[in-house]
């Protein structure tokens, strides 16, 4: 009986790791998409970008709240840094911690 309970806990724990990884990937995608939007619409206000990106969050269905939380927390920083023409969306999102540098992921 104890083994069964431990197995269920392990499976649930493993599922949470997968979920956390997916949420991290989603936050990275939202960051890049937001930065790309600012690059494409450099004269839009922060409020305009927020409104447009909030509409885009709806397509994430059950993860729309994760998208919106990412925007609520990071959009002002993304907006400010995305106006630097020398900073790519990927580099920006790595800098603020929403994406991982793929080169670093191979180093252990």
From TrEMBL:
It comes from the Eukaryota. Residues 24-103 form the Saposin B-type domain. Keywords: Disulfide bond, Signal. SUPFAM superfamilies: Saposin. The keyword Signal applies. Residues 1-15 form the signal peptide. The keyword Hydrolase does not apply. InterPro entries: Saposin-like (IPR011001), SaposinB_dom (IPR008139). This is Saposin B-type domain-containing protein. It comes from Panagrolaimus davidi.
């Amino acid at each position: 009986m104890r083994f069964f309970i431990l197995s269920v806990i392990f499976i649930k724990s493993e599922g949470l790791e997968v979920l956390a990884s997916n949420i991290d990937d989603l936050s990275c995608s939202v960051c890049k998409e937001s930065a790309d939007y600012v690059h494409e619409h450099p004269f839009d206000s922060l409020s305009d970008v927020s409104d447009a990106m909030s509409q885009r969050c709806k397509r994430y269905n059950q993860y729309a709240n994760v998208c919106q939380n990412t925007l609520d927390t990071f959009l002002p920083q993304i907006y400010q840094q995305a106006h630097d023409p020398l900073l790519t969306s990927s580099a920006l999102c790595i800098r603020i911690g929403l994406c991982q540098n793929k080169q670093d992921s191979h180093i252990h």
